[in-house]
């Protein structure tokens, strides 16, 4: 093959490869461009929240929470997930109640760091969604399904996690920042303080809190870009 033909062949091969990469990129973008997929990538953790006016109304936020709890799949349709939407002055009062209980469990040296989070990432926001699981509903399921008894608590946790993710991701698509916390989970004094403040039954077992609001800055920790482990180590395809 002459030098000119070799150069032409190399150029054509490079063009073909470039076109393939371009086409693959367009296809990938098209495949990952539905509203739900956009929500997946929009959801981030914001540690700085403000109480500036939201892009949507409180009624819209309520609807998001209601639809998430209503449509989240649950094992055998048990529907044990619960949520409380806290807004306005009640949001700060909630986090004051949590802090009063949590503070008693912290070493004095750690209190200042935690208080900074409470002041700037939790109570400073517009509101909080508090997630629970109904222990009575779970027990009823366990009592009637001995064969699955060992699995039911895990299935319940899976259901609640899905509900949390739906609310968090949907808020993100509307330009609302949030972060997920677990104060009071398996910590009786803090859980009791939350249950008392919200007026929910003791059978509502605390799972998580999702404080939300207009973000005060970029997501994540300042100056620390979000890193991803190699996807090929995390996803396998068997065909």
From TrEMBL:
Keywords: Cytoplasm, Nucleus, Oxidoreductase, Signal. Its main location: cytoplasm. GO terms for biological process: cellular response to oxidative stress. Residues 1-18 form the signal peptide. Residues 40-213 form the Nitroreductase domain. The gene is FRM2_1. The keyword Signal applies. It is found in: Cytoplasm; Nucleus. It comes from Vanrija pseudolonga. InterPro entries: Frm2/Hbn1, Nitroreductase, Nitroreductase-like. GO terms for molecular function: oxidoreductase activity. Belongs to the nitroreductase family. GO terms for cellular component: cytoplasm; nucleus. This is Fatty acid repression mutant protein 2.
């Amino acid at each position: 093959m002459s030098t000119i033909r070799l150069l032409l062949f190399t150029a054509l091969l490079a063009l073909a490869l470039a076109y393939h990469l371009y086409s693959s990129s367009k296809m990938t973008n098209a495949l990952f461009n539905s509203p739900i997929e956009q929500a997946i990538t929009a959801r981030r953790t914001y540690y700085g929240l403000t109480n500036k006016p939201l892009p949507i109304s409180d009624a819209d936020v309520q609807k998001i929470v209601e639809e998430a709890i209503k449509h989240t799949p649950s094992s055998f349709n048990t529907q044990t997930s619960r949520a409380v939407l806290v807004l306005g002055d009640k949001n700060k009062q909630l986090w004051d109640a949590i802090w009063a209980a949590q503070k008693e469990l912290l070493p004095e040296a750690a209190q200042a760091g935690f208080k900074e989070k409470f002041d700037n990432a939790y109570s400073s926001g517009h509101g909080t969604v508090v997630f629970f699981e109904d222990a009575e509903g779970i027990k009823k399921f366990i009592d009637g399904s001995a064969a699955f008894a060992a699995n039911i608590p895990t299935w319940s946790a899976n259901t609640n996690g899905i509900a949390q993710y739906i609310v968090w991701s949907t808020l993100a698509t509307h330009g609302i920042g949030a972060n997920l916390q677990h104060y009071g989970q398996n910590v009786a004094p803090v859980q009791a303080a939350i249950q008392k403040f919200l007026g929910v039954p003791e059978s509502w077992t605390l799972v998580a809190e999702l404080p939300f609001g207009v973000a005060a800055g970029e997501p994540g920790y300042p100056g620390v870009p979000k890193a991803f482990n190699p996807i090929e180590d995390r996803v396998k395809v068997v065909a």
